[in-house]
Amino acid sequence: MGSTTDAEIRILRTLARDKARPHQGSAMAPSEALDLREQVARIDRNQAETRKRLEESVKRAAETRKLGREALIAPFTAGAAVTGAVVAAMLAVQKLLG
Questions:
Q1: Scanning 20, 43, 85, 88, which has its CA 20 to 30 A from the CA of 58?
Q2: How far is 32 from 45, CA to CA, in rounded Å?
Q3: If DSSP codes are grouped into helix, strand and coil, which group holds residue 23?
């Protein structure tokens, strides 16, 4: 089923509201008003679920970008650790010999 726009939802809500109260001597079957209310409720649920999934998607995208940056920085961090270890070892050897 396709996406329902805000304008379509407003129209359905207006129809449901208008048909729920009889006017100008015309009466609407309760089942028709109930059907429109059910459609509006279904649309509201679908939109809430869509918003929830979009928020999850945005969070996952942010996490993916963060992990990508960390992957780029990791070799430099490892290199700095190795360099620090080598310098510490050289200083220890110099202290023992000197």
A1: 43
A2: 20
A3: strand
